[in-house]
């Protein structure tokens, strides 16, 4: 089967969060390219059997350092894609729990990589790190990497990402661990979350379009704009950034295809560093995504599931994930 040329091969790699959307696509590509792939996640992947995307799967909570150490043992490269996250409705409504969970995961995966002597560490940051004033400025055509400072991220989700960028860079300065960082702009594609409250706008719109007859609801004033990146471009960009000798600073990873007022990627730096940028158009990527979501809905309907696919509800997380860890730790004391 043809596909993009391998960018890394013959390595033992950990994909933390590889049970999720981008992580599972990345793990599958790394395995196909001839790497030994370890995945660690606290949930199994819904769409692929393990042999399709990894050689070993650790079903573990990465908020615990000892689990991170076990999973990254002997790994040359560690890709950290794990985070408690979702679309804007979800991250705005679950700030405290997300911040604690993600602080623990990010810190522990990085420290485990160092303790196990990994050569390279990749961190999946976000366009949410950017100063929110710039995101509301209609005259701002694209966010440049330097615009993240002085810091004023829209949400604490973005603040945690910005802090961990700095932590990964500090580890690189102090230890023989090469850190690489990408700021993803809204990523979509098959196998992405498409219902349940964590879905982002592209998947939500596809689902609502399939589930509606005439109109569907769009949150906000409808004037928001974004840069959307198809998942294959994201995986290619992650590998190129990880293996680059020069991309020592956080880089935007997104397309420049957008209108005004909102969050667009300025790709000057990634073009300079890699001579490459994501180019899959929203028309092509969305076509794949729409028909994949339509297929999921048809499967559910054929199985007798009755569900209102035409609207989106904001889901507020409980403290369940915090309580589960607390009770486990109490038992072991
Ligand atoms: P996702 O939710 O599908 O994947 C994240 C995975 O992390 C999930 O499988 C989840 O179970 C796992 N995880 C979370 N907490 C964990 C824990 N304590 N222990 C073990 N596993 C845990 O999301 P995604 O879209 O694939 O995002 C991957 C990464 O990219 C995340 O770090 C996210 O913040 C970042 N990112 C994504 C986007 C996007 O548009 N999808 C944009 C910017 C940044
Ligand atoms: N999710 C969602 N669902 N968003 C909607 C909907 C809907 O039904 N209708 C309108 N929107 C609007 C949101 O209010 C927001 O203004 C815009 O569409 C984009 O929302 P999302 O796709 O949910 O998220 P985002 O682009 O603001 O942020 C996402 O991308 C970041 C990286 O660029 C999130 O996934 C972040 O976690 C991620 O870091």
List keywords for this structure.
333 residues, binds nicotinamide-adenine-dinucleotide, Rossmann fold, 7-stranded parallel beta sheet, two-stranded parallel ribbon, binds guanosine-5'-diphosphate-alpha-D-mannose, alpha/beta
Description of the structure:
- With 333 residues, the protein is of the alpha/beta class.
- The protein has a domain at 12-188 and 228-281: NAD(P)-binding Rossmann-like Domain (Rossmann fold, 3-Layer(aba) Sandwich), CATH 3.40.50.
- 41% of the residues lie in helices and 13% in strands.
- The chain contains 12 helices and 11 strands.
- It has helices at 21-32, 50-53, 65-71, 88-93, 95-115, 132-135, 156-174, 201-211, 231-243, 268-274, 282-302, 320-332; strands spanning 12-16, 36-41, 56-59, 77-80, 120-126, 178-184, 187-188, 225-226, 229-230, 251-253, 262-263.
- The strands form 3 sheets. It has a 7-stranded parallel sheet, sandwiched between helices.
- Strand 2, helix 2 (50-53) and strand 3 form a beta-alpha-beta unit.
- It binds nicotinamide-adenine-dinucleotide (NAD) and guanosine-5'-diphosphate-alpha-D-mannose.
- Guanosine-5'-diphosphate-alpha-D-mannose is lined by residues 85, 87-89, 91, 126-128, 184-186, 199-201, 204, 218-220, 224, 226, 312.
